[in-house]
Design a protein that fits this description.
By secondary structure, this protein is α+β, with helices and mostly antiparallel strands. It has helices at residues 2-17, 21-42, 94-100, 217-226, 228-258, 280-285, and strands at residues 107-108, 113-116, 125-130, 144-149, 152-160, 163-169, 182-185, 190-195, 198-199, 202-203.
């Protein structure tokens, strides 16, 4: 009985501090069940009529019959979907939270930056940084919720300074470990920490936060099963594209070092007469 009293007091305190109508009704219904159990435990047991023993006086015809015992009220039926006091209350799942917030209007978060750990680090993570418009978010950590999928995350900031914010990415560049990913809330910023999924040859290097190919993991797996060599050819294309971009960057850096006056006036001489025609000083060298 003492444990039921403690449970009832704690549930009533939670109900008084609760702000969501749906959660408050849930707690009130659960408190009603505990009160019914306490009332049933405190009510006296029904008297059992025993047969008269030998020598006992039999009731006379004019005597009034004994009053019948008062019937104890039957406990109210438990609403469907609510747990009994002996069952633990299930924690809300991401689907339950999404269903409980169908009418919320969100402002999309467009300003963010991302980075990843250096190659060879174990374990390796990808970090998404959000700082704009989140001054004081460290004092409202309960407003921040983030759900992780195999190749997605959904960050929601609900009721922060009267607004709701959201950042959702459904097609990440590589797979992640949802159970080992988390969101970190600091004084004026939010950091999403995505744990990379380890492959057969270690952790893959991400080229971007979101895959530009637009293929879902299921589609990529199906294509790889249909043509095992397609994945290798795709990897070779990516390596070739990366090498081409790096070579172009090196050439650009060499041109900038070779020509200290890229913005020279028309007709002036260029210090390097052997620049390619695509260089900005080539037109200056030709007097254009």
């Amino acid at each position: 009985m003492a444990s039921l009293d403690d449970d009832l007091r704690e549930i009533e305190a939670l109900s008084a501090a609760c702000q969501r109508p749906r959660v408050k009704a849930y707690l009130d219904a659960y408190a009603g069940q505990i009160r019914e159990l306490m009332n049933a435990a405190n009510s006296p047991p029904a008297s059992v009529e025993t047969p008269p023993t030998a020598g006992a006086a039999l009731p006379t015809a004019g005597a009034a019959p004994a009053p019948a015992p008062a019937a104890t009220p039957a406990p109210a039926p438990i609403p469907r979907g609510l747990p009994t006091p002996s069952q633990p209350v299930p924690l809300p799942t991401p689907a339950d939270r999404a269903q409980a917030e169908p009418s919320l209007m969100y402002t999309g978060i467009t300003g963010f930056a991302w980075d990843q750990d250096d190659y060879g680090k174990d374990p390796a993570n990808v970090y998404v940084y959000l700082t704009s418009g989140l001054d004081g978010i460290g004092e409202a950590k309960e407003c921040v919720h983030c759900d992780f999928g195999k190749r997605s995350f959904d960050l929601r900031v609900v009721g922060f300074k009267g607004k709701n914010y959201r950042l959702r990415k459904d097609n990440l560049d590589k797979d992640i470990e949802p159970s080992q990913s988390k969101v970190i809330v600091k004084k004026d910023r939010i950091t999403i920490k995505l744990r990379k999924a380890k492959g057969a040859y270690g952790y893959d290097h991400w080229l971007d936060l979101v895959s530009k190919r637009g293929a879902t993991p299921a589609a990529e797996t199906k294509a790889a099963e249909a043509d095992p060599g397609a994945g290798l050819m795709d990897l070779m294309k990516q390596v070739t594209s990366l090498k081409t971009a790096m070579a172009a960057e090196r050439r650009s850096c060499g041109w900038r070092r070779a020509c200290p006056r890229p913005q020279a006036s028309p007709g002036s001489a260029c210090p390097n007469p052997h620049l390619p025609t695509s260089h900005p000083c080539a037109d200056v060298r030709r007097g254009r």
